[in-house]
Design a protein that fits this description.
Blueprint (H helix, E strand, L loop, with lengths): L7 H5 L42 E6 L6 H17 L3 E6 L8 H6 L6 E5 L3 H7 L6 H5 L9 H4 L3 E2 L2 E2 L2 E7 L1 E5 H6 L11 H11 L16 H13 L5 E4 L2 E4 L4 H16 L11 H9 L5 E4 L2 H9 L8 E5 L9 E12 L5 H11 L6 H16 L9 E2 L6 H11 L9 H4 L2 E5 L5 H17 L5 H15 L7
Parallel strand pairs: 1-2, 12-14
Antiparallel strand pairs: 3-12, 4-5, 6-12, 6-13, 7-10, 7-11, 8-9
Length: about 475
């Protein structure tokens, strides 16, 4: 991730209609180099006829719970093999984990093409665990139409190490019906921390197992959730000056953000009694109506609420992260899904992996496959929930085609224009973001489990540990 702020104009010209964590994978229609481009660009043929060679690649395959995404991937594999019958596609069930990637690479077990998230670009590049695909990318006829807000996150020192799929600025999914049932007035979309706390407190019913909000409390997700409040309070994770990385999250802004979490737990009693929730747990609680609000890349909780929780589109509102105070910024951590090519793969395997990754990008056939998926969902009374940001520029010809497609169907979820006008995205810091998240999770768990924690002292100790363990070992 880059430590630069993305303004609303940069991000939301890209449409809040199309992550992560997280955080959340799955490929979307990706450009067949043999298909005629949809604009004036022309496809440059490979120097060698790759179709004359037998090549085998392993690819990221969505998890079993992502049934519709698997259907899209299966259709893509079928169509890819029609163009490249010489290629064997092996489905990999490995999901990227920063604690496992080194082992996978060392054992030569990582897939040829694997998914990762937005924080990992610099880490993978510097570890030598992502192939330098600069030449392949520069020869790609649609490279200038890629969404720079996402694609640039995997450009490190002028070299390209990954392919953007989709992304998001973190927001807040709100169960409108739960608030209305309690007689709680819906906050303004231009809301503040106090507005969130008051609404969460008013809707919370601990005796009934209902929380007003479910901030994630375990795994790296907890540190990720909290960082949104660090950002909106005016803070940051680290600085990089004259080759030195310095931890700064133990600032006054960090203390304010931690004190806010303390209020949610101990003053408002607004979080789950069992607060040790990861992404799956918190989003699941939202879909099941056990919490009124959840902090995440918006498409995840919206999708689960609609397709697993039986909620109606009008029941779910997507808010930006609340501002610290009126007039403040609604910064949400900028995240997303990326595809990375294994540097241990042969040149032919890397070339084919790039073609596979971009096979449906800017492709009418990919658009047709997406439309079929939307139609199938409609038949099954399910909704299609686009990611907040897509790999393409929305002001491109292809972006307009996608927008027109979404507008044809009433089972495509549409994000509110009020939120679009307020949300702002800020990338994570470029160094050891996941390690920082993990350490902050320990602090958050301390605050949620005990009253009277010295929050400044906890932040100082954690910043010192992150500084010495990680930042001081980095050679710039």
């Amino acid at each position: 991730m880059r430590k630069l702020q993305l303004t609303l104009a940069t991000l939301l010209t890209l449409s809040f209609a199309l992550v992560a964590c997280s955080g959340n994978g799955g490929t979307k229609p990706a450009a067949d180099p043999t298909t005629k481009p949809t604009d004036a660009a022309s496809t440059k043929a490979p120097e060698e006829d790759i179709k004359s060679k037998k090549v085998s690649i392993s690819i990221y395959y969505p998890t079993p719970d992502r049934v519709e995404d698997r259907a899209l991937e299966d259709d893509k594999i079928r169509r890819f093999n029609e163009v490249y019958p010489n290629v064997e596609i092996i489905k990999s069930d490995w999901q990227y984990n920063p604690n496992e990637i080194g082992i996978k690479m060392g054992a030569n077990e990582a897939p040829t093409l694997f998914n990762t998230y937005a924080s990992e670009g610099k880490f993978l590049a510097e570890k030598g665990w992502a192939a330098d695909i600069t030449e392949l990318f520069n020869n790609y006829p649609f490279k200038d139409q890629m969404n720079p807000a996402l694609q640039d996150l995997f450009t490190v020192n002028g070299k390209v190490y990954g392919i953007a799929q989709r992304g998001y600025p973190t927001g807040v999914a709100v169960n409108k019906k739960m608030l209305e049932a309690k007689g709680v007035t819906l906050p303004s979309f231009n809301w503040t921390w106090d507005d969130m706390l008051n609404a969460a407190k008013a809707v919370s019913d601990p005796a009934a197992g209902i929380s007003g909000i479910a901030p994630m409390g375990k795994g790296n997700e907890a540190g990720w959730n909290w960082t949104n409040f660090l950002f909106t309070a005016g803070g940051d994770i680290q600085t990089v000056q004259n080759g030195k990385i310095t931890a700064i999250f133990n600032s006054d802004a960090g203390v304010k953000a931690l004190e806010y979490y303390n209020k949610l737990k101990w003053e408002a009693d607004a979080i789950p009694q069992d607060w040790a929730l990861g992404w799956v747990d918190a989003v699941g609680a939202f879909a099941q109506g056990r919490t009124a609000m959840v902090i995440a890349g918006p498409d995840g909780p919206v999708d689960q609420g609609l397709n697993q929780g039986g909620m109606a589109p009008e029941d779910i509102l997507v808010y930006p992260i609340p501002a610290y105070e009126k007039g403040g910024k609604h910064y949400g951590v900028l995240g997303g899904d990326y595809l990375v090519i294994n540097p241990n793969a042969s040149k032919d395997e890397q070339e084919i992996a790039f073609y596979y990754a971009t096979f449906d990008y800017f492709s009418d056939k990919g658009l047709e496959s997406l439309e079929m998926n939307i139609q199938e969902r409609k038949t099954d009374n399910k909704y299609y929930v686009p990611a907040v940001l897509q790999y393409f520029k929305t002001d491109s010809e292809y972006g307009q085609k996608v927008n027109d497609l979404f507008n044809k169907y009433d089972n495509v979820y549409q994000y509110g224009q009020e939120t679009l006008g307020l949300i702002d995205g800020k990338p994570e810091s470029p160094y050891n973001t996941q390690d920082y998240y993990a350490q902050m999770t320990n602090v958050i768990q301390e605050v949620f489990s005990k009253q009277g924690v010295d929050m400044k002292a906890q932040l100082d100790l954690t910043a010192k540990y992150v500084q010495e363990k990680y930042y001081d070992t980095i050679q710039q």
